[in-house]
Amino acid sequence: MDSIQARITRAWHSKYSWVLLLWPLSVIFRFLAFFRRRVLRCFFQGKKFSSPVVVVGNISVGGSGKTPLIIALAKQLIGRGLNISIVSRGYGAKAPFYPMPVEMDTLVSDCGDEPLLIRHSLPQGSCHVVIDHNRTRGVDYALEHFNADLILCDDGLQHYRLHRDIEIAVVDGARGFGNRQCLPAGPLREPVGRLTTVDFVVVNDDSQWLDNTPVDTVFNIVPYRFRNLTTGEVIAIDDWSYSKTVHALAAIGNPQRFADTLVSLGFEPILLGYDDHETMTESDLTFDDNLPVLITAKDAIKLRNNDLKHVWVLDVEAEVASAFVDNLLTAVDLKQFN
Questions:
Q1: Handedness of CA 181, 182, 187, 189 (dihedral sign)
Q2: Per-residue pLDDT tens for 15-62?
């Protein structure tokens, strides 16, 4: 049975739905969001840090591919000799202290699933991950302790208490902006017009993109291997020899995208979607039919100690054009921070 979150999300992405009855509340939300932005920008923007801060976020609720994009951007920037720090709120984290650096052995309950996934995906020496709900404090910590050349802020487009030098808005090309209404009648945290004020708009998969919003670049999230959750065995995509009918479990912003990816690889997924960031249990991953179970890397990071040899992780990576990273560095202009 669908959760309330899943039902509301589906309603937001329907042209005609009962959520439109909430439109008067959306008008109020939109006004408050506009007023809040104007006030906070007046007090907190323009106070530069010693290194540039690039915010990567979105204007809508739900997954947009932001985490794979941040990992891909960090890899390219590290490849160009930069020391990168990533600052995240750490959704759902219950850290013993803030700000808190995320290490390979940090508990997911302390830092949240996405920061830990980022930490495991990037080299430790040239990249550090810090969580703090006060992102300004997190940036200060990263600059003081890790001497970062550039800060990537994971989410926080609406966190206007944080000064930012560059804003990158990520859009899910498959779902777009839903009914284009602000919360609670629609999925938008801010109106679509907000995209005209950011530095870059990037779209995750434009195969279904019909909106006329100008886009700076398109990136695709590409699966590249299967990894056994328990043994760590790795299988190339083309070398999968088990049943193509699989149980597909995903606790991400858009579980259907996971199923669609598997279909594109020739699988017949039996999808079981969970609310974003929800933690699966061993019983959730165990079925009576002996079919393989496939999950996302974001879910796998929360299941490291489980003995589940029938569970495989689909590892993916975002493909970002190097020309876009060139444009990003030109816009940042590191020289002005030296």
A1: positive
A2: 778 998 999 999 999 999 999 999 999 999 888 999 999 999 999 998
Place of tokens 């290490």: 103
Q: Do 94 and 215 belong to one domain?
A: yes
End-to-end CA distance of the chain: 56
306 and 324 part of one domain:
no
pTM of the model: 0.94
112 and 12, same structural domain?
Answer: yes
**Residues of the domain holding 289:** 222-318
Domain with 150 in it: what CATH number? 3.40.50
SS (H, E, C) 132-156: CCCHHHHHHHHHHHHCCCEEEEECC
* Residue 301 DSSP SS3: coil
**Helix ranges (DSSP H) in the chain:** 4-12, 23-44, 66-79, 108-111, 113-121, 135-146, 255-264, 297-300, 322-332
Give the pair of three-digit tokens for residue 106: 């940090």
Concatenated DSSP letters for 54-79? EEEE-SBSS--SHHHHHHHHHHHHHH
Same structural domain, 17 and 101: yes
Does residue 59 sit in the same domain as residue 201? yes
φ, ψ at 26 (rounded to 5°): -65, -35
In this structure, are 20 and 122 located in the same domain? yes
pLDDT digits (tens, 9 = 90+) for 149-178: 999 999 999 999 999 999 999 999 988 999
